[in-house]
Specification:
With about 110 residues, this protein is mainly α. It has one domain. About 75% of the residues lie in helices and about 0% in strands. It has 8 helices and no strands. Helix 1 runs antiparallel to helix 2 and helix 4 packs antiparallel against helix 8. The longest helix is centred in the last third of the chain and has 27 residues. It starts with a helix and ends with a helix.
Length: about 110
């Protein structure tokens, strides 16, 4: 992959990943085959800020966890009404990081599949 494509991809999608993961991601993308570039372009990432807003509004129901793909945690939050509110408050601090981790997992899965 050319450096120009790589820089453009990282500039437009950096908000979806942790800052410390960007260096690793840059190295992985630079070693990636060009044939996987199209597959990478169609990936849809979850926005951490949007997930925080959803967590504020639907946190006790587990909607935030369902949306990022943590079905088990979503069911747990739904059945316990957000852990009687405690789990909901904790998730307000953790949901953005969890969303970025899921995005990183998704892109690494696309690179290595």
């Amino acid at each position: 992959m050319t450096n120009q494509k790589l820089d453009m991809f990282l500039m437009t999608n950096s908000k979806y990943f942790e800052s410390y993961d960007l260096i690793k991601l840059r190295n992985e993308l630079s070693e990636m085959e060009d044939s996987k570039w199209n597959k990478l372009q169609i990936l849809q990432f979850k926005d951490p800020t949007t997930m925080l807003i959803i967590s504020l509004l639907g946190g006790p129901l587990g909607i935030d966890r369902f949306m990022i793909g943590d079905t088990g945690l979503g069911i747990g939050k739904l059945l316990t009404c957000g852990g009687l509110g405690i789990w909901t408050i904790v998730d307000l601090f953790l949901i953005m990081g969890a969303t970025r981790e899921k995005n990183m997992f998704k892109i690494l899965e696309a690179i290595y599949s």
